[in-house]
Amino acid sequence: MIIAKILILLIQTFGVIAIISLIISLITKLLSTLPFGSITAAKSTFKVFNHIKNYDNQVHEKKLINKNYANIQQNWKIQDLENLAENGDAVAQNKLGEIFFLGLNTPKNFAKSFKWSVIAAQNKHKESQQRLVTLYSNGWGVKRDLDIAKYWENQFLDIKTNLTRIGDNKLT
Question: How far apart (Å, rounded) are the C-alpha atoms in residues 58 and 108?
Answer without folding.
Answer: 29
